Every structure is written in structure tokens, then in C-alpha cells.
Amino acid sequence: MTDDVAAARAAAEEQSALSHPPVEPDATVTYGDDPDQLIDLYVPRGAAGPAPVVVVLHGGAWRAPYDRRHISPFAAFLAGRGFAVASVEYRRGAGEPGGAAVAGRWPDTFDDVAAAMDALPALIREHLPGADPRRVVLTGHSAGGHLALWAAARHLLPADAPWRTAAPAPLRGVVALAPIADLAVADKLGVCGDAVRQLLGGDDDFAERRPSADPALLLPTGIATTLVQGRTDVDVPQAVAEAYAEAAAKAGEVVGVTLLEDVGHFPLIDPAADACAVVAEEIAQLAW
Q: Can you give the CATH number for the domain in which 224 is found?
């Protein structure tokens, strides 16, 4: 496949995924005072008995123009499959007026994901009827896949990291979709317009912050983990997921990797794409 053909295909996939109108949640709750510290809740449709919970972390290279609304059709798709869904918003990089948005806000992006995960058990019990808070699967797409893997590994953070937990998160598993899973490899590849370097900062900050931010350094988690990756993904190439899986293997942990032929970056969250059904099945295997 030529570069032009690959680019055209990726653009068409992105257009399809982002063409769906946002789906309003059944409820929205807060986990802090900032306007971005919100979680959209979707009640399970057609579930018999308490439904597993899927926590969704959206992607968008940790940049402000991409918020949880673009992944709301995917969240609603999962609710239609019988899952209770909690779609988390978090602070992202805004950039200078008139300029391009930068990737992430240090440490705010990580503060928010940690706070949301800590608040979710109580919020689920109070605001998400029909949900089983004992069966939670964490998923995320692209930059959200990075945050999902990171959130599941907080018990392995350096002792001085403010987000460290004393024990693993009570998760059934993690399904990371085209995740920016290895920050060093993603940085070398210039993934998403050098988003990793923007997230962590220049050379000194990058070296200092990476041990507290890179899921590939936070292994083994002890939590069942599956990566779903399109083989033709030009936004977050397959090499990034493979690097994480290799790091996990070296740490003595088996991470599942589901590679989808003729699939790029966005079909994984596009309800109109067959790949989205594969994602739902991967989640179901861990959740039920």
C-alpha cells in the first residue's frame, strides 16, 4: 500500500468514526471542581441482572480539541451491548491562543485520571443503576489507551509519585485500543505530532517524568490486559503496542495482543465498523 493510499484510507476511517453525532449520557457526575472533571454515565440496555461496568478513557493525543463527546457513540454502543458505561473527561493541553493545542497538562492530566478512578466506585453505586461495581473493565483509545494502562499500574509507580496506590486497582481487566503504550518508542516515532514529548516535556523533564508516566516501565501489573491494534494504523503504529507486550513478557507477564487486518486507528471506536464489535467482544471476555 502506497503512502498516499494509506493516508487516504486513514482519513476515511477517521471521518467515519467522527461522523456520528454525540450521544447524550443518561447522567453526568463530577469528581472535582474543574469543568473538565466530569464522567458521563450510560445505563446498560437489555442487561439481565447487574451489568459489568466499562470505564472509557477517550483519546485525542491528550489535546483539548478532542473531548469525551467524540467517543460518546462508542460508549452508547457498549451500553447497547449490555454494559454499564462510565466515560471519563480529564484536563488536556490547550496551547497558546491562535496556536496548535499541545498534548496534555503535567501533572493535571494524571491528577484527573487518578482522581476519577478513585471516585468511580462510589459514583457507580450511587448514580449508575443496574451496574455491578465488582466487575469493572477499563478501556481507552490511543492516548486514552495509555491512560488506561497507566491507571491500572498505579500500584507500581515510584514511591514518591502522588498517584501511587497501595494495591492494584480492583479491575477485571484492561482492554487498550491502539494505545500509546510505550512512551519511549512512541516518542522515537513522533506519534501524533510529537505528542509524547509535549506531554512529558524536554529532555530533562522527559527523563524525570517518564518513570511515573510510561506504562511500559510499570510492569507486571497482575491485571489481565489485552491490546487491540489495527495492522494498518498510521497514527499509532503497531510497533508501539508490540513494544509494550515485549516489555510485559520480559517482566514475566503475558499481555494479549489482538491484531486486526486491514484496520487502522479509528475503526476500533466506530460503531459502524466491524472492528468495534471485536472490541466489545474482547471487553466481554474479561467482564462477564
A: 3.40.50.1820
